[in-house]
Task: structure prediction
Amino acid sequence: QVQLVESGGGLVQAGGSLRLSCAASGSSISINDMGWYRQAPGEQRELVAAVDRGGSTSYADSVRGRFTISRDNAKNTMYLQMNSLKPEDTAVYYCHVNAAYWSSTFYRQKGPYDYWGQGTQVTVSS
Result:
């Protein structure tokens, strides 16, 4: 199994910045794509930004130019730098990882599978 731990959420004024982190752990994990999703009350979960194994990134139109996604493959960690935050950015942000892991039980690679973090609240005040 692969476990994801998110951090960095909080309360910030409009125009401020936050940096979210997502650390993946497991047995000899191999991470493919990684991404950040968000979900506001009464809204569907939406993709905010994604980064593949080679470092290619993509962004939702609503955050392009303000948010930057990055990853450290050596640390199995992903980041989301959020600048010029707006009240409409308020949501629970979820880390998503597509990864394979080593099974000591079956002595073979398992996956890849999709994994989700616990979510971290980002609140932007007016």
Notes: The radius of gyration is 15 Å.
